[in-house]
Amino acid sequence: MPNFTHLWIRNLYFAVRLIPNACYDTWRFFTYSGLNKSRHYQGEQAARITMAYHQLEKGLSFASPRPGFGGKTVTRLISAIEPFVSQYGFIPPATTAVGVLKSYIAFNELNDIDMSETKRSVEKLESFAARTEDCAGGVVSIDLMQLEQNRAAGFKHFFNSRYSIRHYSGGEIPDEHIIDATQTAQKTPSVCNRQSWKVHAFKNKSVMRQLLEIQSGNRGFGEQASAVLIITCDLTRFVHVGERFQPWIDGGMFSMSLCLAFHDLGYGTCCLNWSKEYGDDLALRKIAGIDPQEQVIMMLTVGTLPEHFQAARSIRRPLGEILQIHTEQETR
Ligand SMILES: Cc1cc2nc3c(=O)[nH]c(=O)nc-3n(C[C@H](O)[C@H](O)[C@H](O)COP(=O)(O)O)c2cc1C
């Protein structure tokens, strides 16, 4: 016979402990993220430039990019680069953004679209550059045969030959391949081996359409996918206040493994963010039939690859910005 008073006291104890932690998380996110309009972090400015050039790079990698697409994004991008460059110099991601703009101009000019205004802005930005070869960005052309060779050439080549794919050939994916990839991804490490993840796989076109519509970051390519996956984590498997973000960590690592497992099987994938507010979350749960205790981590399109296609280059940040090897003196 459970002791209800004891249970009630324990529940109250954890609820009370969650509140200051939730406030702490909210305060940290509000203070240091781009939500805080009274600060202008370099990181936020860099993120806004990256988000804008990524929109263009992504559009260029579609099966049939629409000439003249992204006019508003170009304006937003240029007006984000100018203050960044005058404050921090012509450094990444401004350099990458200029590379993307040049690819965008070249694509549109090939399609007889007047790009003179954008060209003038890019030339002005380029005049800040010490070396023009810094400006790499746009799309990379991929040949299926070459991709297969890279996949077989050891871990580094395998890893580097994975791209987010936004151009699928529309073939079918058998259930066995979804099972195979999921089984491979099960080798992902997780906190105390709790393996809280779950994969919801959808191949029905009408359901896929509804799921993709609510996600929205897949416009222009999602409908060509062979399957849409939703990766979730089961909250019932987390038992401490300190674990409140663990589902996203374990689920994120699992999702990466899943992408690599599909890459190994020869499919293209594109992670789709579930950075949503509660209304969309509730709507998705209803369409997909996801139990309330499951936390949605992300969605994933999986599709067959054409013989030749393009992928966004998605140039990585300079290593020096993301790797800090702490000296012994520093850590003492
Ligand atoms: C959690 C997550 C969410 C993402 N969401 C989207 C999305 O909604 N739409 C999209 O086209 N790409 C999305 N991406 C793909 C990223 O744009 C891509 O991973 C990034 O540009 C790096 O490129 P790469 O995957 O080709 O190396 C997402 C990636 C991650 C990891």
Strand order of the largest sheet: 2-3-5-4
Per DSSP E runs of 2 or more residues, the count of β-strands stands at 6
The CATH H-level superfamily of the largest domain is: NADH Oxidase
**Helix percentage range:** 40-55%
Number of domains: 2
Report, as a whole number of angstroms, the end-to-end distance: 53 Å
The major sheet is characterized as: 4 strands, antiparallel
Kindly name the structural category. Answer: alpha+beta
In the CATH hierarchy, the third-tier topology of the largest domain is known as NADH Oxidase
Number of helices: 13
Could you say which overall geometry the principal axes of the C-alpha atoms support?
globular
Radius of gyration: 23 Å
CATH domain class name of the largest domain:
Alpha Beta
Instruction: Tell me what the CATH architecture of the largest domain is.
Output: 3-Layer(aba) Sandwich
| Parts with pLDDT < 50 across at least 5 consecutive residues | none
Structure explained in plain terms:
This protein is of the alpha+beta class. It has 2 domains: 107 residues, no CATH class; 172 residues, NADH Oxidase (3-Layer(aba) Sandwich), CATH 3.40.109. It contains 13 helices and 6 strands. The chain has a 4-stranded antiparallel β-sheet with strand order 2-3-5-4, with helices on both faces. Helix 2 packs parallel to helix 4, helix 3 packs parallel to helix 5 and helix 4 packs antiparallel against helix 5. The longest helix has 29 residues. It starts with a helix and ends with a helix. Bound molecules: flavin mononucleotide (FMN).
